[in-house]
Write a structure and sequence with these properties.
With 86 residues, the chain is an alpha+beta fold. Helix content is 45%, strand content 14%. The chain has two helices and four strands, in the order ββααββ. Strands 1-2 form a two-stranded antiparallel sheet. It is rod-shaped. The N and C termini lie far apart (103 Å).
């Protein structure tokens, strides 16, 4: 059949008109990418908050250890004990 064309997608023969293009549903455009800057800002804030929590915990543990090694007597005598020798 000369002049007869077929669809490469489904294999049906036709008269050369593009019937699939006319009947195909229109494709929607991809949604615009928004919120990329917001995502970056939230990640930076999360990292800073995490660093603050870790720093605060380390400071509290250091102060706790220091407070256990410092003794203050009533006449304002301060004694700091160091590591115990074996």
């Amino acid at each position: 059949m000369e002049g007869s064309k077929f669809c490469t997608a489904c294999g049906t023969t036709g008269d050369g008109t593009d019937a699939h293009a006319a009947s195909a549903a229109p494709t929607s455009a991809a949604p615009p990418k928004t919120g990329k800057a917001l995502q970056v800002v939230l990640i930076v804030v999360a990292v800073l908050v995490g660093k603050g929590i870790v720093t605060g915990a380390a400071t509290m543990l250091g102060l706790r250890k220091l407070s256990r090694s410092v003794k203050v007597d009533p006449p304002c005598e301060v004694t700091i004990s160091g590591p115990k020798e074996r």
